[in-house]
Structure formats: structure tokens, C-alpha cells
Amino acid sequence: MRPARAKAERGREDLSRTMPIIGPTEPASLAAAEPPRLIVIVDTEEEFDWSRPLARSETSVTHVRHQDRALRIFDRFALRPSFVVDYAVATQEAGYRPLREWLVDGRCGIGAHLHPWVNPPFEEEISARNSYPGNLPEPLERAKLARLTEAIAANFQYQPTVYRAGRYGIGPATSAILGDLGYEIDTSIAPRTDFGGDGGPDFGAFDADPFWFGPAGRLLEVPLSAGWVGRLSRCGSVLQPPLMSRTGLRWHLPGIFARLGLFERIRLTPEGIVFAELKRLTDAMLARGRRIFCLSFHSPSLVPGHTPYVRNEGELQQFLKRIEQYCEYFFGERGGAASTPQEIRTLLTETASSSPRRTEGALAQ
């Protein structure tokens, strides 16, 4: 083995041992001959004021019926989004009824999204740290997700197998809980992002590659599509901390580095990201051999005034246009294929069964 490769392998093994959030992992990748695949995950949740402290009383879900604004775009490309729903959506008719109709029509899938502060049992104090489900005591995290899973099964007549933790807040106990409750896919990792400022997980060492983890390695992680782009992207672990520091932000260093084409962190989302950035991220990921892409957004963004990303009708139209532009680019110019998380898992399972299983950890830089 060449020295550089050996060093990279040792780095991945060392990294896997320092990741109590996930534990041991095993890489999952599609064959190079496969077309790039796109899935859509929608964090489907109550309407709340993102600038104010969290409250158990904010549970309105009137916006859910307007998800067809994006669904009509996805229908054109035979793309079935997965609506990962929280307790407020799963237990109120205004939330689950329209989604259930689209599910029955085969236009979408349904998963689970745990917002602890609106999901019983209510035993914890409301705080920033406790808004990350993985920070809760294991019995409480388990009880909340069990209640949510039961509500989805009852009101959708559907057993969810896809999970995304609220605020991406997975923790050391999450994988065992997911396995016990019948989940097969997690989508909670936000690569190259550190939520440690208010007690959340640090995903700074993770990239966007899927991997197997959890009990017997049967859970599939499909991270958000996010990463470093630019001529200095290989130096991201060194550059990102100072650029995102108070001093870096005060001097607008992230914007300066991005405009110079040197370095930027981009997420695959229409929220606060323009089409040129979505395209730039995708081109960079494809150039690195990535074949699986995850487009994500929050359901309240489809009604003006509920999120910082869509405050008026004009911004809503731009939001929808970005989704449409990206789909046209991905399925047209890039020859991509529409998928669901379950289809991705099936493809990766088939790929894994035809090649030797690895035993060492795998969190690629």
C-alpha cells in the first residue's frame, strides 16, 4: 500500500474510534456505472418562530396542505420526496390527512422527524441542549421516538423506516433505538457542520458519503449533501474554523473566499442557497466520485412568513424556481435518476452483497 493511502486509511480508522455519535461504520457506495441518484427529504414540522425560544404550545400545521406546490415539480421528474413528519404533523388531521392522500397516490413517502419539545412524554426541560434528541436520557429519547412511530403507524397506516432527528441531533443511543423500532435509514448527519455551540453534535469530520452503522451494521446513513467547494477545499478542516469564527464573520471572510473561488461550504437545499451554488456543489461532488445526492428543506418554507428563507410571495416563487432549475439540471444535464431512500438502500445492499465486507471504520475525509 502506498504511504499516502496507508496514512488515509489509518486516519479513517482513528476517526471512527472517536465518533461515539455513530460508532463503527462501513462505507456504502454505488458502482461508478450507476447514474447519479437524487432523493428529497422534507423536514415536515410545526410552524414556529425560529428567532424565539422553543415552546410546546407552537404546534400549528396549517402549511402542510401547501406542500403540493413543490410536489407538482417533483411529479414532473417522477421524484417521490420523503416527508419526515414530527409529532405535531402526525397527530393533527390538518397535518397527516393531505400527506396520507399523497402517500396513497404514490407521490411521496413518509418518515419520522423527532422534535422533542412538542413530542410526548414531556419530562425534560425545554432548552437548546435538549432540543437535540440524542442529548436526552436514553429511556426518554426511546419513549419519544416510540410515541412518534406509533402515531405515524396509526394515522398513516404506514410503518416508517426513514428517520431524521430534529436539529440533526442524533446521539450515542440513537442507533440502537432506531434498530429496535424497525428503522432502516437515518438521514440526520449534516456534514462539515458543528452544532456544539449550543450542545449539539459535531459533524465536522463527516463527509456526504453514505455508510452502514448501528446494530449488526444494518442501518444506512444517508447524510445531507453538503461539502467544501473551491480551490482550497482540501484544506477545509483547517480553513473552516477561522473563517466561521466571530472575527472571520466580522470581516466577511466566508463571502470573500467564496467569491474568489477559494473555499465555501454549500448544502444541497433551496433554503438560502442559489441555483449556481447548488450546481457548483453537485459538480464538485460528482468530480469526487459521489453518486448519491440528498436535497432537503423544511416544510414551512412553502408558505411565506414561517421561515427566514421565504418571507414573501416573491421569495416563494424564487424558492420553487430553484427546485425546478435544480431538477432540470440534475435529470437533464447530469443524466440523473430519481430515487427514494428505500431504493438507495436496496441498491447499496445489492452492491455490498457482491463485494467483500470491510470491517474497519470508514469516515472519509
Keyword list:
365 residues; alpha/beta; 10-stranded mixed beta sheet; two-stranded antiparallel ribbon; globular; disordered C terminus
Question: What do you see in this structure?
Answer:
- The chain has 365 residues and is of the alpha/beta class.
- The protein has a single domain, classed as Glycoside hydrolase/deacetylase (TIM Barrel), CATH 3.20.20.
- 37% of the residues lie in helices and 14% in strands.
- The chain contains 12 helices and 12 strands.
- The chain is globular, with a radius of gyration of 20 Å.
- It starts with a helix and ends in a 12-residue tail after the last helix.
What general outline do the C-alpha atoms trace? globular
Q: Could you name the CATH topology? A: TIM Barrel
Number of helical segments? 12
Please identify the oligomeric state: single chain
CATH level-two architecture:
Alpha-Beta Barrel
Largest sheet: 10 strands, mixed
* Straight-line N-to-C gap: 18 Å
Instruction: Compute the number of strand runs.
Output: 12
The proportion of residues forming helix, as a percent range, comes to: 25-40%
Low-confidence stretches: 1-18, 358-365
